[in-house]
Amino acid sequence: MKLLVPKTLVAKHSFFEKQVLENFAVSDQVRQLLPDAGLVRGRIVRCCGDAAASLALSLCARASQQGSWLGVVGVSHLGISCAVEHGVALERMVFVHPPESSRDWSTTVAAVIDGFDLLIVAVPEALSVSDARRVQARLQSRRSVMIIVDTATLSQPNFSNNAHPFHADVVLDTATKSWSGINNGAGYLQQRQVAIKVSGRRVARAQEHLVTCNY
Amino acid sequence: MLRCLDWSAVVAAKTSNSPCVVVHGQRVISRSVAAMHYGVQVGMRRRHAQGLCPDLEIATYQPDRDRRAFNTVVRTINEIVPLIEVSEPGVIVFATRGPSRYFGGDEPMASKIVQVLRSSIVADSQFGVGIADSRLAAHIAAHISAQNTAKNTAKNTAKTPFIVEPDQTKVWLAKQSVRVLSEFANISGETVSLLERLGLNTLQDVCKLGESVLAGRFGELGVELHRLARGDEQHPLAAVAPPPEHLCSRAFEEPITDQQTLLNNVQIMAEEFSDYFVKHGAICVRLILKFESETGAHSERLWYRPQGLTARAIIESAKWQIESWSHNSALVRVQLIADEVRTDTARQLKLWGGVTQVDETATRAIGRLTELLGSTAVHLVKWQGGRDLQDNFQLVSASHFQTRQSELNASTEKPKWRGSLPTPSPSVVYSEPQLVQVVDKDKNLLRVSARHELSAEPVQLIISKQSYKVISWAGPWPIEEKWWDTARSRRLVRLQVVIEKLLPDGSQQVQALLVALEHGEWSIVAIYG
């Protein structure tokens, strides 16, 4: 016996449609880290560890060059020279200082999501889970990408994996292993080796990469 | 068109024969005939001009003074021609059709104007009258006429107007060099220089290219260039219904004598008037301003701005017109009549330099964020250059920046300053440095000699009582800035250090920091995070 499914139902129901993933372009070096070979619209990527800020900038750089706007929310320590060296287009980079309280912070971030394709944000300690959910829902409907930077060194609160209010799709945990080019009074910092652990709910199996990067 | 050469220098000069220049921003913007004989040119530096002519009179640029002096000329012309347009001090534009017919042709009318002006006070200035079919052509014609006059004054011959025959304007204009565009039509010098480098030396060459080709290369500017080159006066017309009566005309129940009160009234009108056009996506480029006095006398004048008359510009125009009108009675009526209106496409796009949907959405979001958080919380980045990490770029409030986008666009590729740190730059830069102790193997704080040499090798870094081992280091990179100024002078050295960290789970991790020594104190200024 044949199972009869009306054709109209197939067309209507999103479950039957092939989900098309739209990506923002990323540089070759970071592409291998990401599960869908690019920044998928509507997703949250969280960078933690000591190389989080550079990694966040290198994720944004290619898309920014191609015309996307980048909103930097609450990460006032971000080095601008570093952003330029990564190739972020300065004329499309906007710094926003949001209020601390949970409700105001989420309102501000929602406004940034409305206008910009890419966001680099630092999440305040006070953010409640329900406000975070709302922000995430807005992000998914506006199809922007949010990159959360949290590092202990940023003097921002450091969430443990479970307590974080956002459910990140991809978590990139960085740890610098060594620097080269510098040698007791000679040379200067040139290259480093970074171990990056990739996990998150869109990643089937957590992996660890060792990457050499010149930033 | 009537054009007086170097009007502001003529006004500023004490006597007609003394060499005089008007200087604005250290550059000569106008020079008198006597100064010209010494070889002083417009655009020269002040020092250079002084070098050429030591007893040069130097005057500052005062648009108000030039304007006031020009009012007598305006009044003289106004007696012959009823409706005139004064775009800047020294230039008067009017339509010749009516006056020409009255005086019996273009030539008699032009001679009449020359005669009238010669008998008034401007006799010693060089002025020219030019007649042609388009604004640009008339400008050039008047300039040629003025230059001819300058040559002929020595021979004491009559001043000759320069008339381009009707229907000949296009042919005559085609032969002109593209330089006239920057001189008379507000096209930037860079664009003109680019046209020359592209091998387009005359307006004819520009015209031959075709409008679509120019539009493809230059956008809205290309269309404008082609329009000017072919000698057309028509802007694309905007189909906007004229503003309602109450916006354009205001009658005062009580006649106004005070100028300030009148201007306040005009301001209210001008704001509503320009708002009306903004709402309809148009701009008013030509406006007739009309004042009527108690006794029935009235002053009527045309105002033209190719970029469109904003509320501010209308008020400015009204002020000028009132000053030049010698009326004794109180005013009872003000009228604003939009004479030429066109669509506002060109200016809107230029604001943010971008044309894409993404840029428009982002611009709107910036506006919304500024509204939400205040202008101090939303910043854009501007390059300013410097040796220190914080000096290199400046955060500028977004609300200040919207009108200066071109500056921002130019800021992407900038050279590095000498004495700045080698790349890569740190990704985390603290605005308030964190104090730290950098010590050698005997736990002594590191010092730096007058020649920027370290007292010993750094061995340990102590951050709030916790010590870290220094694996490697490089530097120092010194900064000695503004040593001539005791209040603002800075002297510091910077050091790159790599420290070793033990994580709670037992694994090892290294971290690179940038530490600086200033006023005998070490601090962490940035992290290579």
Characterize the structure shown.
The complex is a heterodimer of chains A (215) and B (529). Chain A is built from six helices and ten strands. In chain A, a hairpin with a 2-residue loop joins strand 8 (170-183) and strand 9. In chain A, helix 5 packs parallel to helix 6 (129-142). Mean pLDDT of chain A is 82; it is low at 10-18 and 154-158. Chain A has helices spanning 7-12, 28-31, 52-65, 80-86, 102-115, 129-142, and strands at residues 23-24, 39-40, 44-49, 70-73, 93-96, 118-121, 145-150, 170-183, 186-199, 207-213. Helix content of chain A is 27%, strand content 29%. Chain A is of the alpha/beta class. In chain A, strands 5-4-6-7-3-8-9-10 form an eight-stranded mixed β-sheet, with helices on both faces. Chain A has a two-stranded antiparallel ribbon with strand order 1-2. Chain A has one domain: P-loop containing nucleotide triphosphate hydrolases (Rossmann fold), CATH 3.40.50.300. By secondary structure, chain B is α+β, with helices and mostly antiparallel strands. Helix content of chain B is 37%, strand content 28%. In chain B, helix 11 packs across helix 13, helix 12 (211-218) runs antiparallel to helix 13 and helix 15 runs antiparallel to helix 16 (311-324). The radius of gyration of chain B is 32 Å and the shape is elongated. At the A-B interface, helix 3, helix 4, strand 5, helix 5 and strand 8 of A face helix 18, strand 13, helix 21, strand 15 and strand 17 of B.
| Number of E strands of chain B | 20
Query: How confident overall, as mean pLDDT of chain B?
Result: 78
Q: What are the segments of chain A in which pLDDT stays under 50 over at least 5 consecutive residues?
A: 10-18, 154-158
Please, what is the oligomeric state? heterodimer
Run of helices and strands of chain A: HEHEEHEHEHEHEEEE
The name of the CATH architecture of chain A is 3-Layer(aba) Sandwich
Q: What radius of gyration of chain A results from the CA coordinates? A: 19 Å
Separation of termini of chain B?
Answer: 66 Å
- The helicity of chain A comes to 25-40%
What is the terminal separation of chain A in angstroms?
63 Å
**Main sheet: strand order of chain B:** 8-7-1-6-5-11-10-12-9
Total tally of structural domains of chain B: 5
CATH class of chain A: Alpha Beta
Main sheet overview of chain B: 9 strands, mixed
